[in-house]
TrEMBL record:
Residues 6-239 form the Nucleoside phosphorylase domain. InterPro entries: MTAN, Nucleoside_phosphorylase_d, Nucleoside_phosphorylase_sf. This is Nucleoside phosphorylase domain-containing protein. Pfam families: PNP_UDP_1. It comes from the Eukaryota.
Amino acid sequence: MSISNVVVAIAMEAEASPFVNQLKLQLDPSFFPTETPFRAFRGRHNNCNLTVITNGMDVVYGTGVDNVGTVPAAIATFLALQKLKADTDPADLLINAGTCGGFKRKGATVGDVFLTTAVANHDRRIDIPGFASYGVGKVESTSVERLAAHLDAKLGICTTGNSLDYHELDSHHMLQNDASVKDMEAAAIAWASEIWSTPHFGVKVVTDIVDGDRPSHEEFMENLGTAATSLQRTLPRVIDYVCDRTHDEL
């Protein structure tokens, strides 16, 4: 069956806005429950129904910043896929798009576009028999080797944690995960997608080098605008490619 209904999950508004504006998607205020801060922008692009979801802004802690991390990402993804299925229009594909840190040991440089081959957690350390692998929570992404070649993008595993920085234990587990890139949402989005049996993969643009010599937060803020522009260029090409193709053709 051809792909005709795509969900794009993007955590931060600054990452999503250029893409939403370029494709002239419209805010759908009725998509998510009113109690949630999440936002959905909907429309058609070529022959695909397209829904872009974001985590919205913090209203719980009074900061007003973007909701980031695994909790809002998992809930927003779960609710979006549930909504589409309830409307008898289930998603054919979920794309997690956004920025990431990259590892120079895996050949990543600032501005690189990575498509995920799998995702895993590096900060869920549960040293109890049976729970250790649950904590890592590795989930394979749908195969997108042809798309990667089309985009001239790199392929690799994305490791997820709830902190922008990291310490030695995180570094050990990121290495064990064989990660090429690092973010704060991918593993949670994949988990929610797996619950709804929705094929998924990530499109990640590198803003900072995790194993480099600069603090991650400085490099991230310095390169966020450039990365958002790169996403704006890349995502329409991704949607153009996946629409009307079967999963086996990705």
